[in-house]
Amino acid sequence: MPFNAALTLEQDRAIIQLTGELDAAAATEFHDKVEQAIHANVRLLEFQAHDLTYMSSAGLRSLLFARQKMGDKGMITFVGASEMVAYTIRLTGLDLSIGMSDS
Questions:
Q1: What total number of domains does the chain contain?
Q2: Are 96 and 64 a contacting pair, CB within 8 Å?
Q3: pLDDT mean across residues, the chain
Q4: Domain limits at 54?
Q5: Beta strands in 11-57 (DSSP E)
Q6: pLDDT tens, 32-90?
Q7: Whole-angstrom Cα distance, residue 18 to residue 6?
Q8: Quick check: helix, strand or coil at residue 24?
Q9: Do β-strands 75-79 and 44-55 pair in parallel, antiparallel, or remain unpaired?
């Protein structure tokens, strides 16, 4: 399934709906959406990952990029990740700096 990232802005919250596989080929699109959200000065960056089927190491780097871009000014939440994607995030310890939620 091809990757897609759809951005929605709601006051001080950005929601990025992730679909498909977040790998090296998708990293640029992911970064672009994160940059758009950051420039909107949001306090919460929420990734809806119910339809994200795969995350490679490049995807993890992209998530780290988002965490660094948000800095201390805001929070990141990763919502609805599949068991495999959530395991990958937890394996690296990235779940210690972003919120993880099932719903």
A1: 1
A2: no
A3: 94
A4: 4-101
A5: 13-22, 44-55
A6: 999 999 999 999 999 999 999 999 999 999 999 999 989 888 999 999 999 999 999 99
A7: 7
A8: coil
A9: parallel
pLDDT band at 103 (very low <50, low <70, confident <90, very high): confident
Name the strand (E) or helix (H) holding 86. Answer: helix 83-92
> Both ends of the chain: CA-CA distance in Å?
22
**pTM higher than 0.90:** yes
- Compute the residue count for the chain: 103
Q: Look up the CATH number of the domain holding residue 35.
A: 3.30.750.24
- Work out the burial of residue 46: count CB atoms within 10 Å of its CB; fewer than 13 is exposed, 13-18 middle, 19 or more buried: buried
Residue identified by tokens 């640029």 is 28
Give the number of other Cβ atoms within 10 Å of residue 17's Cβ.
18
Residue type, 66: A
